[in-house]
Give the backbone structure.
Amino acid sequence: GESVGLHLPTLSVQEGDNSIINCAYSNSASDYFIWYKQESGKGPQFIIDIRSNMDKRQGQRVTVLLNKTVKHLSLQIAATQPGDSAVYFCAENWMDTGRRALTFGSGTRLQVQP
Amino acid sequence: KAGVTQTPRYLIKTRGQQVTLSCSPISGHRSVSWYQQTPGQGLQFLFEYFSETQRNKGNFPGRFSGRQFSNSRSEMNVSTLELGDSALYLCASSQTGTSGRGTGELFFGEGSRLTVL
């Protein structure tokens, strides 16, 4: 498969454990955040989003936490499975001179050990 | 519902040539965004089109251009290719886009892998 990033930080977990992937965002004006998953050879896939008026949102096996005070976002994956192995990107969205801008983080590679 | 389709999936060009990449969005989606993905720079925004109009543009030189047709299909063109243009070019469609007032969820295609020799 194609290499998304040669020097990405990597998180290695055992199958069945919980995973926590962290992201520091840069713009205090960001008001919408998204997590994407990218498997080898594929485009990014939407996982979950959260607006800045929330500090937690839950999906199926995933939870996103937002701490606006320290500009930190995290993605928690419960009972991690081999199929969760991928690169995970956070993205921040904000209004910039009347238009919205979306910026992606550099990504974290999640490796799930069977 | 068919997903976002990008063609070609892989292509090899030489320096100085030009390339055109195509993207067919999900039916009903009016916004198409293009991103360049490289190991060193990650995902970088190129431009977004909505209803045939370029709504936002990233910090790329004028060699990178795009357009959107009335059926929402989009093409991007890179002229006078350089070695550094080698990358995975991703197209994403959404109903409202990420540059307008809405914050539409993006649906990505599998990308066009461009290699410049």
Chain A has no helices and ten strands. The interface with chain B takes residues 2-7, 32, 34, 36, 41-46, 49, 89, 93, 99-107 of chain A (CB under 8 Å).
